[in-house]
Structures are given as C-alpha cells and as structure tokens.
Design a protein that fits this description.
Order of helices and strands: EEEEEEEEEEE
Strand content: over 45%
Number of strands: 11
Largest sheet: 7 strands, mixed
Oligomer: single chain
Structural class: mainly beta
Distance between the termini: 37 Å
Radius of gyration: 13 Å
Mean pLDDT: 93
Shape: globular
Number of helices: 0
Amino acid sequence: HVQLVESGGGSVQAGGSLRLSCAASGYTYREICMGWFRQAPGKEREGVAAISTGGGSTYYADSVKGRFTISQDNVKNTVYLQMNSLKPEDTAMYYCAAVYRYCSGGYWDLRPSQYNYWGQGTQVTVS
C-alpha cells in the first residue's frame, strides 16, 4: 500500500509558476511509476506527466510539453511537478498517482486506469 500526499497548489496569474510536490510512503525496494493528473469540474481526468522512481524516465502530455517538468528526490521519496508559463486552462485539481510497475515511457503512463494509488489532490487556479 502506498500513501501519497500532494502539496504546493494555489492561485497564480497567467504566465506564472507553481511547483507541486507529492510525498510517497508505504513502499520499499520497489520500482514505482508515478504520475500527475488533473481534473477540472465537468471534465475528464487527464494525465499530465509520469516518471519512474527507479530510472527517472519521463513522459508528458502534449498540452504541457515545454512548460511542465516532472522530477524526483529519492532521498525524500518525493515527486515534483514544476509548472511554468501557466495558462487559465491549466486550472484544475491536480492529483498524484502511483502503481507498482515500471513506467512504459509512453501514452499508457498517462491513463488514470493504470494507477492503483491516489493522493487527495491540490487545487491549482490560474487567472
């Protein structure tokens, strides 16, 4: 069982930046794929970025490439999402998710159905 806690959300002006954090616990000696997802009211949950905690390979949704960066701190068991050049359409609840498997390095890493563990979410509002 994996526990995930997101933080770092808030309100920011268009063009600004935020860094989200996802602290993971409850696992050991395992390769885990971790992803960031977002969901706005009335819209489907969509994958944003994914990273393998072991190898550090990453994958991004086309909508955020060049603006968002996913990274990890293995000592702190924390995954980050650096969000730059934020747009109003980035406004959503952002969720961290994890699954006990290697990331594929492709599209399937951004599908919510692939993940078993989820955090509570952190709100990002861009005006």
